[in-house]
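Morning run. Coffee first, then this:
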Amino acid sequence: MRKKTTIVVVFVLALALLAGCGGGGAADSAEATGGGGAPADATEAAEAVSPPSVAGQGEGAGFDSPEAAATAYLEAFKAGDLDAMVACFAVESYVEGCDYEAQLDRIGAFMYTTALTYPIPTDSGLGQEINFEARRGQIISYARTHFMMVGAYNSEFWTVYQEAFLDAASVELEEGDAGKLAALYEEAMNGDAWKAIDKIEAQDPAALSPEHYESENNQKNMQALAAIYGCEELVSAPVYFEVDGEPYFFGPDAGLYDGKWYLVTPYGNICSLMDVANMTAGLVPTEA
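And here it is:
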C-alpha cells in the first residue's frame, strides 16, 4: 500500500547503518596497561577490564531456537523496550568471537570502510569496551531503522520516505515546502504503530527460497559467515507479522554461541535471496 502526497521535496535521508554482515578479528581477553608507578592491585584491576555484562545493556541469556530470538526481538519492539531488543542480539559473544582473518580470507582484500563495521582486533581493555559500545550502537541503528520504517508506513510521509530512503533517490524541494515535510516527518515519527505488532509467525527459510537457501553454494556462504561471526552455526530466522493489520517481513540471521541462539544481523541471508533492500535492515512491509 502506498500513500501519495502532493509535496515535492528534496529529502536526502542519510542513515548511518553499520553493516551487520561481517566480523572482525576479535580478542579472547581484555587487558589494559597500568601507568607508571601505579599500585600492583590497580594495575591488575585495569588488566581485568572487559566489556560490561550488565543486565539490559548487552546480550541476554540467549534462546533455545533461532525463531525464538527473532520473535523475542519483535515482542520487545512492541513493548517499546530498547534494552530487551538489544539483548536479543549477540553482543559480548559477537565481540569476542569475530574473526577478522576469516573476513579478510573471504573477501581477499582489506577495505578501511569495511573494517569499521567489525570489532577492532585488540586485547586492550579500552579497545574491548569500544567494541562493546560500537556493537550495541550498531544494533540500536538497526532498531532506529525499524522504528522509522514502521512509523513512516501508512502515513502521508511514506511516499517521501520510500523514494528518498528505500529507492535511494533525491526528490526536489519547492520553495515553502520544508515546513510541510518537517511536519509530516514529525507526525509519522510520533505515532505508535509499533505497539500494534501482532501475529508473529516464524517461517522456514528453505520454503521461502526453495531454489537457493539450501543450495551447496549458499550453505558454504553461511558457513563462511559463521566463521567470521565466531558462532557455531548460522541460519536465517525469517518471520511474518502484522502491524495494525498490515503484513510485514523480518529476515534476520541467528547464530549459535555456546548452545544458545542470538540474532547476529537483522538483514539475513534470506533477505538477500528474496531481494529485500539492504537499507531496510531486514524489516519491511510486504506490500511496499
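Confidence is low (pLDDT under 50) at residues 1-56. Good start to the day.
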